[in-house]
Amino acid sequence: MPLGPRPADVPRIRKTLTVYKVSSYITGFFLIALVVMMVTRYGLNGDIELGGPEGFLALTPKEDVTGINVSTIILVMHGWFYVLYLACDFVLWRLLRFSFTRFLFIALGGVIPFLSFYFEQTVPRFVEHRLAEVESQEVPA
Predict the structure, then answer these.
(1) What angle do helix axes 70-96 and 100-107 make, rounded to 10 degrees?
(2) Residue 81, helix vs strand vs coil
(3) Domain ranges (residues) in the chain
(4) How many CA atoms lie within 13 A of 80 on its CB side?
(5) The sheet that has 55-60: what strands, in order across it?
(6) Within 10 A of 111 (CB to CB), how many other CB atoms are there?
(7) What is the pLDDT of residues 64-73, one digit of tens each?
(8) Taking a C-beta distance cutoff of 8 angstroms, is the pair 134, 4 a contact?
(9) What does each C-alpha distance from 108 to 43, 121, 123 come to in angstroms?
């Protein structure tokens, strides 16, 4: 049997692709926010604080944060959305049966800034192309 998606998996692939598109945008947004947060934390020696004594939004040393620590929220949110992004990548890899190298390459989208936005455009095209091949090979009963 040739490698590639099975016709029975097409609906699951389409659902996963929809979640993948959304998660790639959200992961990309939080990754950019994470870069900004790391610049403020390690370059300016301050976490982003919301609603603290310094005003609505301020850079405060990590140990002096009394309000909401936005830097920590950014870290946690990016982490969880990256897990969702990886899960979608894994499901697409498993159902489409593409190479493990492609899986790893797509996984970099949540680690390298702006790459997830690029993959949000290219991965669906690749998947749709593969699905079109499968659907054209189906023989009507």
Answers:
(1) 160
(2) helix
(3) 7-137
(4) 5
(5) 55-60, 47-52, 68-69
(6) 11
(7) 888 889 999 9
(8) yes
(9) 24, 15, 13
